[in-house]
Specification:
single chain
Length: 311
C-alpha cells in the first residue's frame, strides 16, 4: 500500500486581495511561481484524466493504490492553485484568457496523444521536481519567507508533497509502459511542451498585468527572449517593447547549488533513475513533522507568531 497522505488545504485567498508581486524582494520569482500556478491547473487536470484512463490497465494492487493516492494529491494541488489563479484573475480579468489557453494546451495533449505518451510526460516532468524544488526549498529564506504568507505556504505545501510522491509517476509508467528508452525518446518533446505552456503564461502576464504591478518582464526567464530583446535595443532600425527589467529568479543563489539542481534534472531522465535515492530538502522533513503536530501549515511563516499572540 502507498504511504502517500491526501491533505486538503485552504489558504484564504478569498479573504484578501492577492498581489501578483507576492514577493516584492524578488519580482522574477513571483512571476515564475505564478506561472507554475497556471501550469499546475492544466497539468494536474491532465493527470487526473490520465490516471482514470490508466486504472483498468493496472494489475498490481500496490501500484493501483499508489496511482489513486497520486491522483488525489494532484487533485488537491489543482484545487488550491485554482483558488490562487482565481484571485489573480479577480484583480486582472484578462488573465482568464491566459488560464483558458494554458488549460487548452493540456486538453489538446489529452485529446491528441496516446496514454503511453502522457504517462511518459508525467514521469519525465515529475522526475525533475525533487532536484528543482530542493533548490527552492533550501533557499526559502529569500524565495518564500519575504512574501505573502498565503502564496508562500501554497507553494511550500505543493513542493513538499511533490517530494513525497516523487516516485509515483515512474511507478505507474513502469507498470504500464516499462520502457526507459521510450521515456527518454519522448523527453525532448515533453520539455518543449512544458516551455510552451510557461511561455503562454508569461506572455499573458506581460499582456494583462501592468508593468508597474509585476516589476519584471515575465518573459525574462527565457534566454532566447533576453538575447532577442538585447539585439533589438542595439539596432536603431528596430524597436523593442519594454516590459520591465529582465532579471532572473535565481540570480542571487549560489552557482554551485544551481548546477547541482541542473545535474539532478539531467540525472532524472537517465535509464533506471530511482527518485528514492535523491537528496531531499530539509524543509520537507520539517513540514511533515509540523503538519503531524497540528501546526497551521497554511500560514507557514506567521502561524507561530499568531499562536503566541492568541496566548
Amino acid at each position: 500500500m502507498t504511504d502517500l497522505q491526501v491533505r486538503k488545504m485552504r489558504f484564504g485567498f478569498e479573504n484578501q486581495d492577492v498581489p501578483f508581486l507576492w514577493n516584492e524582494a524578488n519580482p522574477a520569482f513571483s512571476s515564475m511561481a505564478n506561472a507554475v500556478s497556471f501550469l499546475a491547473v492544466g497539468f494536474e487536470k491532465m493527470i487526473v484524466q490520465m490516471i482514470t484512463e490508466a486504472k483498468p490497465l493496472i494489475t498490481d494492487p500496490g501500484v493501483a493504490a499508489e496511482a489513486d493516492a497520486f491522483m488525489r494529491q494532484e487533485g488537491q494541488h489543482s484545487t488550491a492553485h485554482r483558488q490562487h489563479v482565481k484571485a489573480l484573475i479577480d484583480r486582472y480579468p484578462g488573465l482568464q484568457e491566459t488560464l483558458d489557453d494554458v488549460i487548452g494546451a493540456f486538453d489538446k495533449l489529452t485529446a491528441e496523444t496516446s496514454l503511453h505518451y502522457r504517462l511518459a510526460y508525467t514521469a519525465d516532468l515529475e522526475a525533475t521536481f525533487t532536484p528543482v524544488f530542493k533548490l527552492m526549498l533550501d533557499n526559502d529564506s529569500t524565495l518564500f519567507a519575504p512574501g505573502d504568507d498565503r502564496v508562500a505556504s501554497l507553494f511550500i505545501w505543493h513542493f513538499v508533497e511533490e517530494v513525497e510522491h516523487r516516485s509515483s509517476a515512474l511507478i505507474i509508467f513502469d507498470s504500464i509502459v516499462g520502457s526507459d528508452l521510450y521515456r527518454m525518446r519522448m523527453a525532448p518533446s515533453v520539455f518543449r511542451h512544458v516551455l510552451k505552456v510557461i511561455r503562454i503564461a508569461s506572455e499573458g502576464f506581460n499582456k494583462h498585468v501592468p508593468v508597474e504591478d509585476r516589476k519584471i518582464d515575465a518573459m525574462a526567464m527565457f534566454a532566447w527572449y533576453r538575447r532577442r530583446q538585447t539585439f533589438r535595443r542595439l539596432m536603431p532600425t528596430l524597436t523593442a517593447d519594454y516590459n520591465g527589467p529582465m532579471t532572473r529568479a535565481f540570480d542571487h543563489l549560489p552557482l554551485g547549488e544551481q548546477l547541482t539542481a541542473l545535474g539532478g534534472v539531467v540525472r532524472s531522465q537517465m535509464p533506471k533513475h530511482n527518485p528514492d535515492h535523491e537528496k531531499l530538502p530539509e524543509l520537507a522533513g520539517v513540514w511533515f513533522e509540523r503538519f503531524e503536530s497540528g501546526y497551521d501549515v497554511t500560514n507557514w511563516y506567521t502561524a507561530g507568531a499568531k499562536a503566541q499572540g492568541a496566548n
